[in-house]
Amino acid sequence: MKIAIVTGASSGLGAEYVRCLAEDSDLGQIWVIARRADRLEALASSCKGKTVVPVPQDLTLEESFSALRRKLEEEKPEVKVLINNAGFGTLGDFDASDLAAQTRMVDLNVRALTAVTRAVLPYMKKGSYAINVCSIAAFAPNPRMTVYCSTKAYVYSFSKSLRYELKKKGINILAVCPGPMDTEFLPVAGIEKGSSHTFDTLPRCSPSQVAKISLKKAAKGRGVYTPRLFFKLYRLLAKLLPHSLVMPLSKT
């Protein structure tokens, strides 16, 4: 049986990925992973005609990886699609930040993505692919989101290197790097209107479009997808200019 696995599936971009994948007739099931079981149940009920399996887990905890490995070992599915979407950020100066929130960010954005990918890879075959949800924050350091942009730089580098390693097996890895989206990410990060001039003025990406287009690009073997021309230009600028010049522009 072919399945998809989506982390951070309870809302926002993760839920949009599930809705898109529910239209894939090649998939027998979609496993959805997040902390909020009630949200996962509601999402499963809304996807008519597709078996969506809620897997309530807190991916900042070591036992969640063991639970996922056990489930994979028991059911031995073929994982056609892996979406690593779980993650969060916070806004503010690092020296005034909450330590627990910063380390939890590293656990979820970096450690969990790494562990889930390693657990799932043995069940992926030629033609399968993973999408790692990255960010434009990966392209250059973002003052006031120092830990977040650093975790996304890891995801960006990890995705590119792993894609190179897996080419011989016919498995693709895509890093999707959107700009801000009007999802729960912003209020969770403490980014309300007026808290950041950068976020107030940046154009928004559509979660449904990001999900739909990135799935198509991943299936076609693309390695990086950045929505909107504005953010594509920023990605190019961050490549060409020293980060010391880019940081005043990227400051959140």
Supply database-style keywords.
single chain; alpha/beta; seven-stranded parallel sheet; 7 strands
Account of the 3D structure:
This protein is an alpha/beta fold and 252 residues long. 47% of the residues lie in helices and 15% in strands. It has helices at residues 12-21, 37-46, 62-75, 99-120, 146-166, 185-188, 197-201, 207-219, 229-240, 243-250, and strands at 2-7, 29-34, 51-56, 78-84, 129-133, 172-176, 224-225. Helix 5 (146-166) links the parallel strand 5 and strand 6 (172-176). Helix 3 (62-75) runs parallel beside helix 4 (99-120) and helix 4 packs parallel to helix 5. The radius of gyration is 18 Å and the shape is globular.
Short note summarizing the structure:
With 252 residues, this protein is of the alpha/beta class. The protein contains ten helices and seven strands.
Biggest sheet, spatial arrangement of strands: 3-2-1-4-5-6-7
Determine the structural class based on helices, strands and strand pairing. alpha/beta
What Rg, in angstroms, do the CA atoms define? 18 Å
CATH architecture field: 3-Layer(aba) Sandwich
Q: Helix and strand succession?
A: EHEHEHEHEHEHHHEHH
Percent of residues in beta strands? Answer: 5-15%
Described by the principal axes of the CA atoms, the overall outline is globular
CATH superfamily name? NAD(P)-binding Rossmann-like Domain
Flag low-confidence runs.
none
- What is the number of helical segments per DSSP (H or I, 4+ residues)? 10
| CATH fold annotation | Rossmann fold
What's the pLDDT, averaged over the residues?
95
Total domain units: 1
Largest pleated sheet: 7 strands, parallel
Separation of the first and last Cα atoms: 44 Å
